[in-house]
Amino acid sequence: MDNNYRVCFTGVGGQGTLLATMVLAEAAIFAGHNVLASEVHGMAQRGGVVESSIMIGDLKSPIISDGEADVLVGFEPLETYRAIQKCSADSVVISNCVPVMPFSVAIGKGTYPEVETLFARIRPRVRQLVTLDAPALGRKAGAVLSANVVMIGALAKSAALPIPTEAFEHTIRTKTKKKFVEINLKAFELGFGAS
Amino acid sequence: MHPLLRLEQGDKHLLLGNEAIVRGALEAGIGFATTYPGTPSSEIADNFFRIAAESDLYFEYSTNEKVALETAAGAAVSGVRTMCSMKHVGLNVAADPLMTLAYVGVRGGMVIVTADDPSMFSSQNEQDNRWYARLSHLPMLEPASAQEAKDMTVAAFDLSETLQVPVLLRTTTRLSHHRGLVTTGSLRPPKTTGAFEKNPSRFVTVPANARVRHRVLLEQMEKARDMACESGFNVVRGNGPWGIVTSAMAYNYVADAIEDLGITDRVCVLKLGFSHPFPERLAVDFMRSVKKVLVVEELEPIMEDSLKAIAQGAGLSTPIAGKGDGLFSRLYEFQPAMVRAVTAKYFGVAYTPPEPVDPNKDGEKIQLPMRPPNLCAGCPHRATYYAVNSVLADMDIEAVFPTDIGCYTLGILPPLQTADFLVCMGSSVTSAAGISRVTGQKVIAFIGDSTFFHSGITGLINAVHNEHHFVLVILDNGTTAMTGHQPHPGVDKGPPGWQKPSVSIEALVRACGVEQVWVVNPINLGKARAAVREALESEKLSVIIAKAPCPLFARRVLGEKQKRAFEVGPECTGQCPVCIDRFGCPALYRNPDPDATPAMIINQDLCIGCGVCIQICKKIRPKKM
Question: Which fold has domain B380-556?
Answer without folding.
Answer: Rossmann fold (3.40.50)
